[in-house]
UniProtKB/TrEMBL annotation:
InterPro entries: AAA+_ATPase, Coronavir_polyprotein_1ab, DNA2/NAM7-like_C, DNA2/NAM7_AAA_11, P-loop_NTPase, SF1_C_Upf1. Keywords: ATP-binding, Coiled coil, Helicase, Hydrolase, Nucleotide-binding. Residues 658-862 form the AAA+ ATPase domain. Residues 24-55, 91-118 form a coiled coil. Pfam families: AAA_11, AAA_12. This is AAA+ ATPase domain-containing protein. The keyword ATP-binding applies. Belongs to the DNA2/NAM7 helicase family. GO terms for molecular function: 5'-3' DNA helicase activity; ATP binding; hydrolase activity.
Amino acid sequence: MPHPALVIGLAAVGIAAATFRFVCDELSDEEKRKRERMREEYKKYEQERNKYSEWRHRQDVHDIKADHDGAKQRAMYEEEGKRETARKAYYHHMQDSLEQMKAQREDLLGELKQAIQTTRSQMTGEQNTHLRKHSLVQLHQSLEEAKEKLHAYLYYLHKYEKYLHRCESQGMELPAPFELLLPELFPYIGKLITYKKKDLFAKGSLAIDQGITLQYACPDLKVIEDYDEEADIHLFVESSRNNTCTYSISKGLFKYTALYEPGIGIEAKVLRHDKSFIHLDFKGLLLRMYKSDFENPFRTPPRNVDIRVFPKEWTYNLRHREPLVTEKYQESFAVCQFNSVPLVFDYDDYEDFYKWVEHNEHVWSQTSEWKIAPLDEGDIPYAEEVILQLGTDLVMKARVMNSEDGRSFLYYRGMLDLSDNLLQPEDIFVALKGSFSVAFSEEFDLLPEEDFIEMEQFSLLLFNEFREQKVIKESYVGSRFFNRWAEVTDALITYLYKGDAEVCVTGPVRYTGFNHELKLKKYEAEVRNDQDIHAFLSESMTSYQQYCFIVADDGRYLPVEFSPTAEWVTVYGDFKEVNEDQELTVYIKNFPYPEVQQKKALNQFREGLLKNSRLKSGLLNPASIQTKQREIGELSFYNRLLSENTTQRTIVHEALQEEDIYFIQGPPGSGKTTVIQEIIHQHLQHHPDDRVLVVSQANVAVDNVMVDLVDRYDEEYMIRCGKTREGDVLPISFDKRYEEYLEGIRSIDPETVPIGLLEEWKEIVMPEDSHGNNSEVGELILKGNRIVGATCVGLAQKRIGLDRLSFDLVIIDEAGKALPAEILIPVNRAKKVVMIGDHKQLPPTVNTALFDPEKIELEDREYCTNEMFEKSLFQRLYEDCPDRNKSMLDTQYRMPAVIGSMISTFFYRGRLMNGAPTYDKRPVFFNKHLNWLDMSQDVFFKEDAAHGSPQNKREAEIVCRLVDKIKESLSNDQRIAVITPYKGQKRLIEQAFRKNKVALEGRVAINTIDAFQGDEAELVLYCTTRAERKTKFFSDYARLNVALSRTKSDLLIIGSRDYFKTYGEDSMLYQISSYIEEYGDMWRYKELLDFLPETLEGRNTLLQR
């Protein structure tokens, strides 16, 4: 049943019901009856045809010819006559039906053209609200699409008619009845069609229906040269005439992004500038952008650079006018504004609603953003019942209805329970700002007419948005997670744009005109504290690309410009005049490079720009991963230790066999680095020309893998990109290799090369005005290496050409610590991925601003926290992927067996075994490996959280004194690690070491637990810091796992045993304290101080012997 308000909206531009049904791909009751009559006629024809065929099959042709009395001959003529009568009847019925249908569709075409003219004139009206204009644009595009579908349908009828005549004239079997709606596969101008790249050619044919085949041409096939063969390619039908249609890939990519993924944007190249516009090129499609639509309106990008832009306005067929784009992503899916629409109540239903408003007056009066959703998504696109949600405080049900005189309104049907009906991020809904005109049904006629007009546009908008969102939702399983991450990353980038800030005190603000170049209003004011502002700008503005902005009341960033002496300030955009002094917080715009690169990777992933498109479907829905294995035969392992570990051997073998993606869970000390290095050795043994990438979110993890590979491979075989402190890795660093290349160029004797060639080459690779690397030279250097090491974000570096490389094998270490977008940076470039991590340890570090509602507003904070921030992408993938695509390293070699067993019991369900050498380890500093310095009786041992992150002065003093006693006994290859859950305590401990002049000497590490993950030491001092308040952060399983599993020999916990036990007998903290009481030593502070000097002196003597 059609949506009632949509019928009204279409009627407003002169569209009759028949045309409306065509727009909505629906048939009228009469058309349905007509379809049935055609099918009945065809059925009669089929029956007579089949009866004749069966009769002939039963007869012997020779007997018919030998029939002397003619009986059989007459019977044959009779059967043929019946068949021919049925054939002619069906043929003429089809002829008549075709003529009727062509006439009806020609009339509809005339109606549609008139309606398009009407909407076009209405769209230029000066009185249009934003909502009305937005709705009219959507309606206009729907009508344009319907017009093209009608043209295509008439051509389809023409093709069918020709085929029908041919069958009749040549005695062929007649075709089944024609369709009353355009067949699904039939192209029309503006339609989006999806092909797999492997199935798309420069020229080809398209089988539509029986006897109907069209030809296609795709002239811009080169656009997708770098796409994977399995990638989905979205094509735009540019023309469809005379049996041939033309596809455009560039227009298809543009329109698909504009309709279904507006927040992704596209990479376009700057072509030229004129007075008002920047002209751009997107894969051959020309675009325009107002200069005011730059993020920084004071910066004009040079020609030939790529910038990311977002579709803003475009015509349906992408002809005549170049599409308009913007650099401001928010404008591509801005919240729409409506003024007021009618909400009608019955007297009996009003009481509950009134009581709610009375008790929540502040919400009702101050909150204007509504979410509107279909009550049942299955009813889309004709959802008559909708949910109206105000903020997160009110949810009610309404019905879209028409009055007898054709006016549309919302009819209140009751309040809904918040717990069951609050909209979730995966739901289909539209966010709108506005209000409702409340009236009783008996007073319906008193509502202003403008509200009913607004309701028409309101309904049209809902109709289109519901329909489009449903298409997206049904098309992408699992995309919600990545789409939400893209939105969160956008919000974070917007927040991080706020750099250094200063309060600017201004005099009265005055409107001073319109900047025609920027297309923005100008407001000016005198600066009262000009000296402070001048000093602030001189210190903070370090780049010509930076600019200043203020935050408007509605959250928009408005650019500001100061005079050279900072005595005057100009604000650009929709500001307001003020007659008195005011304070404006002025920000310097930052460029959050890591987050911008992550957003770019998310965009590329959502666009499908992966080297292996199967990886996208696997990450969207890991349960759907298809195991693809290739036979590799027996392996001869490089590392002999693998011969002693069946699990490691099996994992290496399975990872090499898998063609697309394989996951490895690596608990603490389980030999992840050993396995990674073996996979690299074996892969290059079987594929010596392949390029392998070793990548992690942290530099130290990359160096841990690369350092041992340096001894096995030539320096020219591998390269390390990015920062490294590892001395053994420095010879293969990119910076060293790049400088060696330049030095080689400088040392060339000019006499040995053609005249001018050397100077020309020097100008290319090291121009005088350049302060960085040449990316072409960087790419050249990188391509000569088979093993590349980099961090995830570092992989996006354009300045060294690293962003241009693809890799045959990508190994992602510490994947459990990487954000989804960090993982996507290497995944997008990979033909095959091996991902190694441990979701039982700490998840990725999320920017703290995302947890603060005052800094970043997240609509679905609970979902973000539980499903995105506290659960890594690696965990989602590992837990849901098929068993054949994953395995766990099940033997640890780092910790003494007594600690390894504790870790296995409490964090790995007993599945983590101890390697044989762990049972032979002897304590280095204590009598036992497990030790607890119990501070339960020390009244001074307690945390102070008054100033933010908790601190414990007593603990800092104790650990400083203990380390000072212990460190003198350290051998050159031994380390002490002091770890704590809290940054505040880390700072306090460092201060205590400096105050007491306890030198760290590079052998004592002081860090938070989170930062120390992935590292290890012979002695770990775990400073618990807290002794009073129970917190979820302190008792977090993953953080405890990391804290207790860093040691290679001895562990000393400094803390209150009584505090651990306050968490209850069922808690892990209680059980851990009980385990250590049973298998370790419990110490008092004085006992430990007395014990250490004597013990350490004795052990030093033993070491010397």
